[in-house]
Amino acid sequence: MLFRSWCRIDWQKKTFQRIYYGWFIVFIGGLGIFFSGPGQTYSNSAFIDAYINDFGWSRTEVSSLYSTATLIAGLIMMFVGRFIDRYGQRFMMVTVGTIFAFACFFNSIVTNMFMLAIGFFLVRLLGQGTMSLIPNTLVAQWFVKKRGRAFSFMTMGSFISAMLFPIINTWLIQTWNWQAAWQFWGLMLLVVFVPFALFGVRNRPEQMGLEPDGLKSSQDEGAEPVMGTTLPESEEDWTLKEAMRTWAFWGILISVGIPAMINTGITFHIISIFDTNGLSPYKICPGCLSSSSFNF
């Protein structure tokens, strides 16, 4: 029995050494971006007509609240970045994931426009903003030479989220109601994402005796680099003020910002655009036709 236990531990150790822990960090990062979904416009767009039909609000009123909440949340994101630098990604992931879950529960009890404005602000700040920012800063700590590949894998969480959230929300709203849809995502955040962040995230590879891109123990000078790679040279770090003095910073900011504004506006009204063209989201999701509670 003792020999078996030793063999099992030795096999697990060798397996761990063959697989760089950073790739598990990439998975959690992708999971974080996936669960930013409740704060993303492609998810919220499924609720807009439900609000209009249930409360009698105009589309202009709802979209104005959403725009204002998004703008305020975007301005506050500057302070969120400082919190990430101060407290680390693991702490922020767990804390934000938990608060974000309760923000989803809050959205399920919205009864007036003031509550809706607060709900929009919370999910935009915590979901679309913070839950997207933290994984990007986390993965960047674990990879340098392979950062592009790591980010490409992590970004798959965004595509999967954009693909599944509208379908799941449509089904939940039609099968039960929009309140149940918000509660579902709040529960999923608490049950799935927060435990992964709590037990799986490490802020930097050095905390596990590793180095970026590969497995090299700082305590074992005789360890060979993993995957036949050498450690990358140190990167040049810029402060925010130094970055703001470059044309590249503003060019990237504008290039990212303009498409985001256009895509958000179109996606927010996508159900209405479907309706204008004689399309229904339930033609895309045939199973959602059963137990319908309202028509878009």
Keywords:
single chain, 296 residues, mainly alpha, Growth Hormone, Chain: A, globular, disordered C terminus
What report would you give on this structure?
This protein has helices at residues 2-18, 22-34, 41-55, 59-87, 89-107, 113-142, 147-175, 178-200, 240-244, 247-268, 270-276, 281-284. The protein is mostly helical and 296 residues long. The chain has one domain (21-208, 246-289): Up-down Bundle (Growth Hormone, Chain: A), CATH 1.20.1250.
List the helices and strands and how they pair.
Elements: H1 2-18, H2 22-34, H3 41-55, H4 59-87, H5 89-107, H6 113-142, H7 147-175, H8 178-200, H9 240-244, H10 247-268, H11 270-276, H12 281-284
Helix pairs in contact: 2-6, 2-7, 2-8, 3-7, 4-5, 4-6, 5-6, 5-8, 6-7, 7-8
Instruction: Spell out the CATH superfamily.
Output: MFS general substrate transporter like domains
Query: What's the quaternary structure here?
Result: single chain
Number of strands: 0
Content-based structural category: mainly alpha
